[in-house]
Design a protein that fits this description.
Helix content: 10-25%
Structural class: alpha+beta
Number of strands: 2
Distance between the termini: 30 Å
Order of helices and strands: EEH
Strand order of the largest sheet: 1-2
Number of domains: 1
Strand content: 5-15%
Length: 48
C-alpha cells in the first residue's frame, strides 16, 4: 500500500508513462509536493 511506481518515457515502446524524459525536474518537484493521492488504472486479466 505504500509503494509508488512512476513511469518515465525514454523510448517508443508505447507503455503508459507519467512523465517524459525531459520532465525529470517536474517529477522531482511533484514528489516533493506529494499529497498521497492515489490513481489506479485498470489491468487487463486474460485467460488463454
Amino acid at each position: 500500500d505504500r509503494v509508488r511506481f512512476v513511469g518515465i518515457h525514454t523510448g517508443h515502446l508505447g507503455f503508459y508513462t507519467d512523465y517524459r524524459d525531459f520532465e525529470v525536474d517536474k517529477l522531482i518537484e511533484n514528489l516533493k509536493l506529494d499529497t498521497g493521492a492515489r490513481v489506479s488504472y485498470p489491468i487487463l486479466n486474460v485467460k488463454i
